Amino acid sequence: MHNFDFAKPSTIADAAKALAADGAQALSGGQTLIPTMKQRLAQPTVLVSLTGIKEMQGVCMGDGGLHVGAATPHAVVAKEARAHYPALADLAGGIGDPAVRSRGTIGGSIANNDPAACYPSAVLASGATVVTNKRKIAADDYFQGLFTTALEDGEFVTSVIFPIPQKAAYVKFNQPASRFALTGVFVAKFASGVRVAVTGAGNDGVFRWAEAERALSADFSASALSGLSVDPAGMISDLHGSAAYRANLVKVLTGRAVTAAG
Amino acid sequence: MTKVSMTVNGKAVSGEVEGRTLLSSFLREGLGLTGTHVGCDTSQCGACVVHVDGKPVKSCTVFAADVAGANVKTIEGMANPDGSLSVIQQAFQDHHGLQCGFCTPGMVMSSAALLAENPKPTEAEVRHYLDGNICRCTGYHNIVKAVMAASGQDVSALAAE
Ligand SMILES: Cc1cc2nc3c(=O)[nH]c(=O)nc-3n(C[C@H](O)[C@H](O)[C@H](O)COP(=O)(O)OP(=O)(O)OC[C@H]3O[C@@H](n4cnc5c(N)ncnc54)[C@H](O)[C@@H]3O)c2cc1C
Ligand code: FES
Ligand code: FES
Q1: Hey, which residues does B14 pair with through a beta bridge?
Q2: What CA–CA distance (Å, rounded) separates A181 from A184?
Q3: Which of A39, B24, B109, B119 lies 20 to 30 Å (CA to CA) from residue A142?
Q4: Ligand 1 environment, Cβ below 6 A
Q5: In whole angstroms, what is the distance from residue B2 CA to residue B48 CA?
Q6: Residue B160 has pLDDT above 60, yes or no
Q7: Which member of B20, B66, B133 has the closest CB to residue A3?
Q8: What is the best residue among B100, B108, B111, B144 to mutate for testing ligand 3's pocket, by most ligand atoms within 8 Å of CB?
Protein backbone atom coordinates (compact mmCIF):
# COMPACT_ATOMS: atom_id res chain seq x y z
CA MET A 1 0.00 0.00 0.00
CA HIS A 2 1.29 3.47 -0.80
CA ASN A 3 1.69 5.77 2.17
CA PHE A 4 -0.53 8.79 2.82
CA ASP A 5 -1.10 11.49 5.41
CA PHE A 6 -3.77 10.65 7.95
CA ALA A 7 -6.27 13.19 9.27
CA LYS A 8 -9.03 12.65 11.79
CA PRO A 9 -11.26 15.72 12.09
CA SER A 10 -13.96 15.89 14.76
CA THR A 11 -16.53 18.02 12.93
CA ILE A 12 -18.26 17.92 9.52
CA ALA A 13 -16.91 21.40 8.77
CA ASP A 14 -13.30 20.33 9.39
CA ALA A 15 -13.79 17.16 7.36
CA ALA A 16 -15.13 19.24 4.46
CA LYS A 17 -12.01 21.40 4.57
CA ALA A 18 -9.68 18.40 4.70
CA LEU A 19 -11.53 16.66 1.85
CA ALA A 20 -11.26 19.72 -0.39
CA ALA A 21 -7.49 19.07 -0.72
CA ASP A 22 -6.08 17.47 -3.88
CA GLY A 23 -5.78 13.69 -3.53
CA ALA A 24 -7.84 13.59 -0.34
CA GLN A 25 -10.28 10.72 0.20
CA ALA A 26 -12.77 9.84 2.93
CA LEU A 27 -12.14 6.82 5.16
CA SER A 28 -15.09 5.47 7.10
CA GLY A 29 -15.03 1.86 8.34
CA GLY A 30 -12.29 0.97 5.86
CA GLN A 31 -13.83 -2.44 5.16
CA THR A 32 -13.84 -1.71 1.43
CA LEU A 33 -11.26 1.04 1.09
CA ILE A 34 -8.39 -0.64 2.97
CA PRO A 35 -8.53 -3.84 0.84
CA THR A 36 -8.75 -1.59 -2.24
CA MET A 37 -5.68 0.39 -1.16
CA LYS A 38 -3.75 -2.81 -0.48
CA GLN A 39 -4.34 -3.70 -4.13
CA ARG A 40 -3.26 -0.19 -5.09
CA LEU A 41 -6.59 0.38 -6.81
CA ALA A 42 -6.90 3.53 -4.69
CA GLN A 43 -3.94 5.68 -3.73
CA PRO A 44 -5.07 8.75 -1.82
CA THR A 45 -2.40 11.18 -0.65
CA VAL A 46 -4.51 12.26 2.33
CA LEU A 47 -6.94 9.96 4.08
CA VAL A 48 -9.61 11.73 6.11
CA SER A 49 -11.16 9.48 8.74
CA LEU A 50 -14.84 10.23 9.40
CA THR A 51 -15.03 7.94 12.43
CA GLY A 52 -14.23 10.65 14.96
CA ILE A 53 -17.16 12.92 13.99
CA LYS A 54 -19.89 12.70 16.65
CA GLU A 55 -22.52 14.43 14.43
CA MET A 56 -22.19 11.52 11.97
CA GLN A 57 -22.77 8.77 14.53
CA GLY A 58 -25.92 7.07 15.75
CA VAL A 59 -29.56 6.41 14.99
CA CYS A 60 -32.54 8.56 16.05
CA MET A 61 -36.09 9.43 15.00
CA GLY A 62 -36.45 12.94 13.57
CA ASP A 63 -38.00 14.96 10.77
CA GLY A 64 -38.89 12.69 7.85
CA GLY A 65 -38.21 9.41 9.65
CA LEU A 66 -35.23 7.54 10.97
CA HIS A 67 -31.93 9.45 10.80
CA VAL A 68 -28.84 7.26 10.53
CA GLY A 69 -25.46 8.99 10.82
CA ALA A 70 -23.24 8.10 7.87
CA ALA A 71 -20.42 6.87 10.12
CA THR A 72 -22.67 4.55 12.13
CA PRO A 73 -21.36 0.97 12.00
CA HIS A 74 -23.63 -1.81 10.77
CA ALA A 75 -23.65 -3.45 14.23
CA VAL A 76 -25.04 -0.27 15.80
CA VAL A 77 -27.79 0.05 13.17
CA ALA A 78 -28.64 -3.64 13.72
CA LYS A 79 -29.22 -2.89 17.39
CA GLU A 80 -30.53 0.68 17.51
CA ALA A 81 -32.79 0.72 14.43
CA ARG A 82 -34.63 -2.41 15.59
CA ALA A 83 -37.38 -0.61 17.53
CA HIS A 84 -38.10 1.82 14.66
CA TYR A 85 -37.37 -0.01 11.43
CA PRO A 86 -36.84 -3.76 11.97
CA ALA A 87 -36.25 -4.60 8.29
CA LEU A 88 -33.36 -2.10 8.19
CA ALA A 89 -31.93 -3.57 11.41
CA ASP A 90 -32.18 -7.07 9.90
CA LEU A 91 -30.33 -5.95 6.78
CA ALA A 92 -27.54 -4.30 8.79
CA GLY A 93 -27.24 -7.39 11.01
CA GLY A 94 -26.79 -9.61 7.96
CA ILE A 95 -23.93 -7.72 6.32
CA GLY A 96 -20.66 -9.65 6.11
CA ASP A 97 -19.63 -11.00 9.51
CA PRO A 98 -19.48 -9.54 13.03
CA ALA A 99 -16.02 -7.98 12.58
CA VAL A 100 -17.08 -6.30 9.32
CA ARG A 101 -20.19 -5.02 11.11
CA SER A 102 -18.11 -3.53 13.95
CA ARG A 103 -16.34 -1.19 11.52
CA GLY A 104 -18.24 -0.94 8.22
CA THR A 105 -20.69 1.96 7.93
CA ILE A 106 -23.77 2.94 5.95
CA GLY A 107 -22.03 6.02 4.52
CA GLY A 108 -19.16 3.96 3.15
CA SER A 109 -21.52 1.38 1.76
CA ILE A 110 -23.71 3.76 -0.20
CA ALA A 111 -20.77 5.93 -1.30
CA ASN A 112 -19.08 2.87 -2.72
CA ASN A 113 -22.33 1.57 -4.33
CA ASP A 114 -21.01 -1.96 -4.92
CA PRO A 115 -23.51 -3.79 -7.17
CA ALA A 116 -23.74 -6.57 -4.54
CA ALA A 117 -23.99 -4.37 -1.44
CA CYS A 118 -27.03 -4.61 0.83
CA TYR A 119 -27.64 -1.01 1.97
CA PRO A 120 -28.33 0.55 -1.45
CA SER A 121 -31.46 -1.63 -1.72
CA ALA A 122 -32.80 -0.35 1.62
CA VAL A 123 -32.09 3.27 0.72
CA LEU A 124 -33.76 2.95 -2.69
CA ALA A 125 -36.75 0.85 -1.55
CA SER A 126 -37.43 3.19 1.37
CA GLY A 127 -37.24 6.27 -0.85
CA ALA A 128 -34.70 7.59 1.64
CA THR A 129 -32.94 10.94 1.47
CA VAL A 130 -29.14 11.01 1.33
CA VAL A 131 -27.84 14.03 3.23
CA THR A 132 -24.38 15.33 2.33
CA ASN A 133 -22.23 18.20 3.57
CA LYS A 134 -23.73 20.24 0.71
CA ARG A 135 -27.32 19.14 -0.02
CA LYS A 136 -30.05 16.52 0.21
CA ILE A 137 -30.36 13.94 -2.56
CA ALA A 138 -33.39 11.70 -3.18
CA ALA A 139 -32.48 8.00 -3.38
CA ASP A 140 -33.92 7.82 -6.91
CA ASP A 141 -31.35 10.41 -8.06
CA TYR A 142 -28.46 9.22 -5.91
CA PHE A 143 -27.56 5.79 -7.35
CA GLN A 144 -26.21 6.22 -10.87
CA GLY A 145 -24.82 2.83 -11.84
CA LEU A 146 -21.93 0.55 -10.93
CA PHE A 147 -19.82 2.15 -8.18
CA THR A 148 -21.27 5.50 -9.30
CA THR A 149 -23.32 7.99 -7.29
CA ALA A 150 -24.45 11.60 -7.47
CA LEU A 151 -21.67 12.62 -5.05
CA GLU A 152 -19.36 15.28 -6.43
CA ASP A 153 -15.69 15.87 -5.66
CA GLY A 154 -15.20 16.84 -2.04
CA GLU A 155 -18.81 15.95 -1.20
CA PHE A 156 -19.52 13.30 1.43
CA VAL A 157 -22.55 11.64 2.99
CA THR A 158 -23.32 12.83 6.51
CA SER A 159 -26.57 10.95 7.18
CA VAL A 160 -29.43 9.06 5.59
CA ILE A 161 -33.09 9.72 6.44
CA PHE A 162 -35.42 6.74 6.07
CA PRO A 163 -39.20 7.21 5.91
CA ILE A 164 -40.69 4.30 7.89
CA PRO A 165 -42.84 1.96 5.79
CA GLN A 166 -45.94 0.18 7.09
CA LYS A 167 -44.36 -3.16 6.26
CA ALA A 168 -40.95 -4.11 4.91
CA ALA A 169 -38.45 -6.93 4.60
CA TYR A 170 -35.04 -7.61 3.08
CA VAL A 171 -34.20 -11.08 1.82
CA LYS A 172 -30.60 -11.80 0.91
CA PHE A 173 -29.43 -14.84 -1.01
CA ASN A 174 -25.92 -15.21 0.40
CA GLN A 175 -22.83 -15.59 -1.71
CA PRO A 176 -21.06 -17.59 0.98
CA ALA A 177 -17.48 -16.91 -0.13
CA SER A 178 -17.70 -13.11 -0.27
CA ARG A 179 -20.52 -12.85 2.31
CA PHE A 180 -22.13 -10.23 0.03
CA ALA A 181 -25.53 -10.74 -1.60
CA LEU A 182 -25.58 -12.99 -4.64
CA THR A 183 -28.91 -11.23 -5.05
CA GLY A 184 -30.98 -9.36 -2.48
CA VAL A 185 -34.43 -7.76 -2.55
CA PHE A 186 -35.84 -5.07 -0.27
CA VAL A 187 -39.62 -4.60 -0.33
CA ALA A 188 -41.23 -1.62 1.42
CA LYS A 189 -45.00 -0.98 1.60
CA PHE A 190 -46.08 2.62 2.16
CA ALA A 191 -49.59 4.09 2.22
CA SER A 192 -48.71 5.60 -1.18
CA GLY A 193 -47.62 2.29 -2.73
CA VAL A 194 -44.99 -0.43 -2.70
CA ARG A 195 -41.31 0.01 -3.61
CA VAL A 196 -39.09 -2.92 -4.58
CA ALA A 197 -35.31 -2.53 -4.87
CA VAL A 198 -32.97 -5.23 -6.13
CA THR A 199 -29.25 -5.55 -5.43
CA GLY A 200 -26.67 -8.07 -6.62
CA ALA A 201 -28.45 -8.68 -9.91
CA GLY A 202 -28.32 -5.65 -12.21
CA ASN A 203 -25.31 -4.86 -14.39
CA ASP A 204 -25.90 -1.20 -13.50
CA GLY A 205 -26.17 -1.84 -9.77
CA VAL A 206 -29.22 -1.46 -7.56
CA PHE A 207 -32.55 -0.94 -9.41
CA ARG A 208 -36.29 -0.75 -8.80
CA TRP A 209 -38.51 -3.48 -10.25
CA ALA A 210 -41.39 -1.35 -11.48
CA GLU A 211 -43.75 -4.17 -12.61
CA ALA A 212 -43.57 -5.82 -9.21
CA GLU A 213 -44.22 -2.49 -7.53
CA ARG A 214 -47.41 -2.04 -9.56
CA ALA A 215 -48.62 -5.59 -8.91
CA LEU A 216 -47.85 -5.43 -5.18
CA SER A 217 -49.41 -1.99 -4.77
CA ALA A 218 -52.68 -3.54 -6.01
CA ASP A 219 -52.31 -6.78 -4.04
CA PHE A 220 -49.56 -7.15 -1.41
CA SER A 221 -49.07 -10.91 -1.62
CA ALA A 222 -46.44 -13.17 -3.15
CA SER A 223 -49.07 -14.60 -5.52
CA ALA A 224 -49.49 -11.16 -7.11
CA LEU A 225 -46.09 -11.78 -8.73
CA SER A 226 -47.05 -15.07 -10.38
CA GLY A 227 -47.62 -13.64 -13.86
CA LEU A 228 -44.44 -11.55 -13.87
CA SER A 229 -41.00 -12.41 -15.15
CA VAL A 230 -37.67 -10.60 -15.06
CA ASP A 231 -35.71 -10.12 -18.27
CA PRO A 232 -32.21 -11.67 -17.91
CA ALA A 233 -30.80 -9.03 -20.29
CA GLY A 234 -28.96 -6.55 -18.11
CA MET A 235 -28.45 -9.05 -15.27
CA ILE A 236 -25.01 -9.88 -13.86
CA SER A 237 -23.60 -13.17 -15.09
CA ASP A 238 -20.56 -14.66 -13.34
CA LEU A 239 -19.25 -17.98 -12.05
CA HIS A 240 -21.63 -17.81 -9.09
CA GLY A 241 -24.80 -17.49 -11.17
CA SER A 242 -25.92 -16.88 -14.74
CA ALA A 243 -28.09 -13.94 -15.76
CA ALA A 244 -31.10 -16.25 -16.06
CA TYR A 245 -30.45 -17.66 -12.60
CA ARG A 246 -30.30 -14.18 -11.11
CA ALA A 247 -33.43 -13.07 -13.01
CA ASN A 248 -35.29 -15.98 -11.47
CA LEU A 249 -33.84 -15.21 -8.01
CA VAL A 250 -35.17 -11.65 -8.22
CA LYS A 251 -38.72 -12.97 -8.54
CA VAL A 252 -38.32 -15.70 -5.93
CA LEU A 253 -36.72 -13.36 -3.38
CA THR A 254 -39.30 -10.63 -3.98
CA GLY A 255 -42.01 -13.15 -3.16
CA ARG A 256 -40.17 -14.24 -0.03
CA ALA A 257 -39.68 -10.64 1.06
CA VAL A 258 -43.41 -9.91 0.65
CA THR A 259 -44.25 -12.98 2.71
CA ALA A 260 -41.68 -12.05 5.36
CA ALA A 261 -43.06 -8.50 5.53
CA GLY A 262 -46.45 -10.09 6.38
CA MET B 1 5.56 9.16 11.08
CA THR B 2 3.18 10.05 13.87
CA LYS B 3 3.03 8.85 17.42
CA VAL B 4 0.01 6.80 18.49
CA SER B 5 -0.92 5.74 21.98
CA MET B 6 -3.49 3.16 23.02
CA THR B 7 -4.18 0.64 25.71
CA VAL B 8 -3.31 -2.95 24.77
CA ASN B 9 -4.23 -5.75 27.15
CA GLY B 10 -4.55 -3.25 29.96
CA LYS B 11 -1.16 -1.58 29.43
CA ALA B 12 -0.59 1.90 28.01
CA VAL B 13 1.54 1.59 24.87
CA SER B 14 2.73 3.99 22.21
CA GLY B 15 4.78 3.88 19.05
CA GLU B 16 5.66 5.64 15.82
CA VAL B 17 3.46 4.67 12.87
CA GLU B 18 2.97 5.66 9.24
CA GLY B 19 -0.52 6.49 8.02
CA ARG B 20 -0.64 3.10 6.32
CA THR B 21 0.45 1.06 9.36
CA LEU B 22 -2.27 -1.52 10.00
CA LEU B 23 -3.27 -2.36 13.56
CA SER B 24 -2.09 -5.94 12.89
CA SER B 25 1.41 -4.64 11.97
CA PHE B 26 1.51 -2.30 14.96
CA LEU B 27 0.65 -5.18 17.30
CA ARG B 28 2.96 -7.77 15.71
CA GLU B 29 5.94 -5.71 14.59
CA GLY B 30 5.64 -2.66 16.82
CA LEU B 31 4.74 -4.38 20.08
CA GLY B 32 5.98 -7.92 19.40
CA LEU B 33 2.51 -9.34 20.10
CA THR B 34 2.66 -12.05 17.43
CA GLY B 35 -0.28 -14.01 18.82
CA THR B 36 -2.52 -12.05 16.43
CA HIS B 37 -2.16 -13.92 13.13
CA VAL B 38 -2.42 -12.57 9.61
CA GLY B 39 -3.93 -15.33 7.50
CA CYS B 40 -5.08 -13.56 4.37
CA ASP B 41 -4.48 -9.82 4.76
CA THR B 42 -7.56 -9.39 2.51
CA SER B 43 -10.27 -9.13 5.22
CA GLN B 44 -11.61 -12.61 4.58
CA CYS B 45 -10.27 -15.07 7.17
CA GLY B 46 -10.68 -13.56 10.64
CA ALA B 47 -7.34 -14.91 12.00
CA CYS B 48 -6.40 -11.33 12.91
CA VAL B 49 -9.52 -10.52 14.97
CA VAL B 50 -8.84 -8.49 18.12
CA HIS B 51 -11.19 -6.44 20.30
CA VAL B 52 -11.23 -2.66 19.93
CA ASP B 53 -13.26 -1.06 22.73
CA GLY B 54 -14.89 -4.45 23.27
CA LYS B 55 -15.89 -5.01 19.63
CA PRO B 56 -14.36 -7.66 17.37
CA VAL B 57 -12.45 -6.14 14.44
CA LYS B 58 -10.13 -7.47 11.76
CA SER B 59 -6.84 -5.87 12.75
CA CYS B 60 -5.56 -6.22 9.17
CA THR B 61 -8.41 -3.93 8.06
CA VAL B 62 -8.01 -0.95 10.37
CA PHE B 63 -5.23 1.61 10.54
CA ALA B 64 -3.38 1.91 13.85
CA ALA B 65 -3.72 5.70 13.68
CA ASP B 66 -7.52 5.42 13.38
CA VAL B 67 -7.79 3.59 16.72
CA ALA B 68 -5.42 5.83 18.69
CA GLY B 69 -6.69 6.10 22.23
CA ALA B 70 -8.70 2.88 21.99
CA ASN B 71 -8.71 -0.05 24.36
CA VAL B 72 -7.39 -3.08 22.46
CA LYS B 73 -7.42 -6.68 23.61
CA THR B 74 -5.49 -9.44 21.84
CA ILE B 75 -5.10 -13.16 22.41
CA GLU B 76 -2.17 -12.38 24.72
CA GLY B 77 -4.66 -10.69 27.04
CA MET B 78 -7.03 -13.65 27.24
CA ALA B 79 -5.39 -15.87 29.85
CA ASN B 80 -6.31 -15.46 33.52
CA PRO B 81 -4.06 -13.18 35.61
CA ASP B 82 -2.30 -16.26 37.10
CA GLY B 83 -1.38 -17.42 33.58
CA SER B 84 -3.88 -20.29 33.43
CA LEU B 85 -6.07 -20.54 30.34
CA SER B 86 -9.37 -18.67 30.28
CA VAL B 87 -12.58 -20.68 30.13
CA ILE B 88 -12.82 -20.29 26.34
CA GLN B 89 -9.18 -21.22 25.73
CA GLN B 90 -9.46 -24.24 28.03
CA ALA B 91 -12.62 -25.34 26.20
CA PHE B 92 -10.80 -25.16 22.84
CA GLN B 93 -8.10 -27.44 24.31
CA ASP B 94 -10.55 -29.84 25.99
CA HIS B 95 -12.73 -30.23 22.89
CA HIS B 96 -9.96 -30.26 20.27
CA GLY B 97 -11.16 -26.96 18.81
CA LEU B 98 -7.84 -26.56 17.01
CA GLN B 99 -5.37 -28.53 14.94
CA CYS B 100 -2.58 -26.34 13.50
CA GLY B 101 -3.77 -23.43 15.64
CA PHE B 102 -3.33 -20.74 13.03
CA CYS B 103 -6.95 -19.58 13.10
CA THR B 104 -7.26 -20.05 16.87
CA PRO B 105 -6.40 -16.53 18.10
CA GLY B 106 -9.15 -15.09 15.88
CA MET B 107 -11.56 -17.87 16.77
CA VAL B 108 -11.03 -17.28 20.49
CA MET B 109 -11.42 -13.49 20.16
CA SER B 110 -14.60 -13.81 18.06
CA SER B 111 -15.99 -16.42 20.45
CA ALA B 112 -15.28 -14.16 23.41
CA ALA B 113 -17.10 -11.31 21.67
CA LEU B 114 -20.06 -13.60 21.00
CA LEU B 115 -20.30 -14.82 24.60
CA ALA B 116 -20.05 -11.27 25.93
CA GLU B 117 -23.08 -10.35 23.77
CA ASN B 118 -24.95 -13.63 24.05
CA PRO B 119 -23.88 -15.77 27.03
CA LYS B 120 -25.92 -18.85 26.04
CA PRO B 121 -25.93 -19.04 22.23
CA THR B 122 -27.56 -21.86 20.31
CA GLU B 123 -25.42 -23.99 18.01
CA ALA B 124 -26.88 -22.11 15.02
CA GLU B 125 -25.99 -18.76 16.61
CA VAL B 126 -22.40 -19.90 17.21
CA ARG B 127 -22.04 -21.01 13.60
CA HIS B 128 -23.57 -17.78 12.33
CA TYR B 129 -21.34 -15.59 14.51
CA LEU B 130 -18.18 -17.40 13.43
CA ASP B 131 -19.06 -16.87 9.77
CA GLY B 132 -16.06 -14.59 9.29
CA ASN B 133 -13.51 -16.93 10.90
CA ILE B 134 -12.13 -19.48 8.51
CA CYS B 135 -10.40 -22.68 9.65
CA ARG B 136 -8.70 -24.92 7.11
CA CYS B 137 -8.15 -27.81 9.55
CA THR B 138 -10.89 -28.69 11.99
CA GLY B 139 -14.10 -28.77 9.95
CA TYR B 140 -15.56 -26.45 12.64
CA HIS B 141 -17.54 -29.04 14.65
CA ASN B 142 -15.13 -29.06 17.57
CA ILE B 143 -14.82 -25.28 17.52
CA VAL B 144 -18.58 -24.96 17.83
CA LYS B 145 -18.54 -27.58 20.58
CA ALA B 146 -15.81 -25.70 22.46
CA VAL B 147 -17.75 -22.43 22.33
CA MET B 148 -20.96 -24.15 23.49
CA ALA B 149 -19.02 -25.80 26.32
CA ALA B 150 -17.38 -22.51 27.28
CA SER B 151 -20.87 -21.03 27.63
CA GLY B 152 -21.63 -23.70 30.24
CA GLN B 153 -23.96 -25.76 28.05
CA ASP B 154 -24.03 -29.53 27.83
CA VAL B 155 -22.30 -30.60 24.62
CA SER B 156 -22.50 -34.37 25.02
CA ALA B 157 -25.23 -34.57 22.37
CA LEU B 158 -23.43 -32.40 19.77
CA ALA B 159 -22.19 -34.29 16.74
CA ALA B 160 -18.47 -35.01 16.99
CA GLU B 161 -17.75 -35.79 13.35
C1 LIG C 1 -15.65 -9.90 4.34
C2 LIG C 1 -16.57 -8.77 3.94
C3 LIG C 1 -17.91 -9.03 3.76
C4 LIG C 1 -18.80 -8.00 3.38
N5 LIG C 1 -20.11 -8.31 3.19
C6 LIG C 1 -20.98 -7.34 2.83
C7 LIG C 1 -22.37 -7.61 2.64
O8 LIG C 1 -22.83 -8.72 2.81
N9 LIG C 1 -23.17 -6.60 2.26
C10 LIG C 1 -22.70 -5.33 2.10
O11 LIG C 1 -23.47 -4.45 1.79
N12 LIG C 1 -21.41 -5.03 2.30
C13 LIG C 1 -20.54 -6.01 2.66
N14 LIG C 1 -19.22 -5.69 2.87
C15 LIG C 1 -18.79 -4.30 2.67
C16 LIG C 1 -18.93 -3.54 3.98
O17 LIG C 1 -20.29 -3.36 4.31
C18 LIG C 1 -18.24 -2.20 3.91
O19 LIG C 1 -18.12 -1.81 5.22
C20 LIG C 1 -18.94 -1.11 3.15
O21 LIG C 1 -19.25 -1.45 1.84
C22 LIG C 1 -18.06 0.13 3.07
O23 LIG C 1 -18.23 0.85 4.23
P24 LIG C 1 -17.01 1.38 5.05
O25 LIG C 1 -17.59 2.21 6.12
O26 LIG C 1 -16.13 0.27 5.45
O27 LIG C 1 -16.32 2.35 3.98
P28 LIG C 1 -14.82 2.56 3.53
O29 LIG C 1 -14.21 1.27 3.15
O30 LIG C 1 -14.12 3.37 4.55
O31 LIG C 1 -15.06 3.46 2.25
C32 LIG C 1 -15.63 2.95 1.05
C33 LIG C 1 -15.66 4.06 -0.01
O34 LIG C 1 -16.60 5.05 0.34
C35 LIG C 1 -15.97 6.32 0.51
N36 LIG C 1 -16.63 6.91 1.67
C37 LIG C 1 -16.67 6.38 2.93
N38 LIG C 1 -17.51 7.09 3.71
C39 LIG C 1 -18.01 8.08 2.93
C40 LIG C 1 -18.94 9.14 3.18
N41 LIG C 1 -19.54 9.32 4.36
N42 LIG C 1 -19.23 9.96 2.14
C43 LIG C 1 -18.64 9.79 0.92
N44 LIG C 1 -17.77 8.82 0.64
C45 LIG C 1 -17.46 7.96 1.64
C46 LIG C 1 -14.50 6.04 0.67
O47 LIG C 1 -13.73 7.10 0.22
C48 LIG C 1 -14.35 4.79 -0.18
O49 LIG C 1 -14.24 5.15 -1.53
C50 LIG C 1 -18.32 -6.68 3.23
C51 LIG C 1 -16.96 -6.41 3.43
C52 LIG C 1 -16.09 -7.43 3.80
C53 LIG C 1 -14.64 -7.12 4.03
S1 FES D 1 -5.70 -11.58 8.13
FE2 FES D 1 -7.24 -10.16 8.61
S3 FES D 1 -9.02 -11.14 7.88
FE4 FES D 1 -7.44 -12.53 7.27
S1 FES E 1 -6.73 -25.12 13.30
FE2 FES E 1 -5.60 -24.91 11.48
S3 FES E 1 -6.65 -23.26 10.52
FE4 FES E 1 -7.94 -23.68 12.16
Answers
A1: B5
A2: 6
A3: A39
A4: A 25-33, 50, 70, 95-96, 100, 104-105, 107-109, 111-112, 114, 117-119, 151, 156-157, 179-181; B 43-44
A5: 23
A6: no
A7: B20
A8: B100
Tell me the CATH number at B95. Answer: 1.10.150.120
Q: Quick one: pLDDT at residue A21?
A: 94
**In ligand 1, which atom is closest to the CA atom of A132?**
42
Q: CB contact, 8 Å: A98 with chain B?
A: yes
Task: Give burial (CB, 10 Å; 0-12/13-18/19+) of B83.
Answer: exposed
Q: Which residues are A186's β-sheet partners?
A: A170, A197
> Options 3.40.50.1370, 3.40.50.10490, 3.30.390.50, 3.90.1150.10; which CATH number does A167-261 get?
3.30.390.50
pLDDT over threshold 60, residue A180? yes
Prediction ipTM score: 0.96
Task: Say yes or no: B18 and B48 in one domain.
Answer: yes
CATH number of A54-162: 3.30.465.10
The number of the ligand nearest the C-alpha atom of A97 reads: 1
pTM: 0.96
Mean pLDDT (chain A) is: 97
Q: Which residues contact B93 (CB under 8 A, 6 or more apart)?
A: B85
